[in-house]
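Memo to structure team: turn this sequence into structure tokens by end of day. - J.P.
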Amino acid sequence: MFNFKWKKIGIIAGLSLSLITAGCGSTAGNLQTKDNVSKELEYTITGTEPGAGQTEKNEEAIDAYDNLDGWEQEMSSAGAMLTQLSDAIDNEEAIVFSAWSPHYKFAKWDLKYLEDPKGIYGEEEAITTIARKGLKDEMPEAYTIIDRFQWELQDVEEALLETLEKDFEVVAQDWVDENQETVADWTEGVESVDGTSIELVLLPWDDAIFTANVAKIVLEQQGFNVTLTPVDPAIMFESIATGDADASLAVWMPSTHAALYDQYEGHFEDLGPNLDGAKVGLAVPAYMDIDSIEDLEQKE
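Reply from structure team:
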């Protein structure tokens, strides 16, 4: 809606002409704003490492969206990308960057994902718990607790922000101390054990490291001897399927780990989501006046 400060105009014709002129000028201004944003961005998406899954998705998006014709992706590292994001926000400059949730950047800054009408980045995902066959019968106490693990996206992102200043183990212990009611719900009716060993495999991703450390603390409070083993996704699935490890809290479905899930399906037990709202895509600072990938302008 246009917001005009009117002066008295002597005739109706003059009033009508002023309305038409103002309306046309405002529309042109909006279009020019989007064009200026793309120019300010130098038609560049700020990405992370070459070969990363999201880096490849960004290239798919550049190919799929006609309005990204002529755009390029700047690749370096996640750390370098976050430095560029911080600098851009400090100066309130435009930036379009690779984003994923959970991540501390969404707790630190006011950011928004760009809509993806073509669905290149897929739908929201759920981080899912899987366990080896037989765990329920052999370690019912551990199985019950692991099955109850559930986190909120915002809680995890706020915790990850704290890991910039503290070790993951410390942040996990703080979270357990501050969420005793939740922990009590997880362990309600579960008997303690005496040093039973259990191994959780995890991905070397910050959110997985945090949730695994919370799980370790909670299980150890029940008397378990917990080993956390970081692995790559293929080993994560293989170790659970073969029974070499007991459980994992780090499976992203239905997209990120779909191929591995299908490969090993039937050889593990799916306990369902432990966190909803996980996502990957392109994002911008909230102060930028664009909402969709299609709002970006083709390079002339």
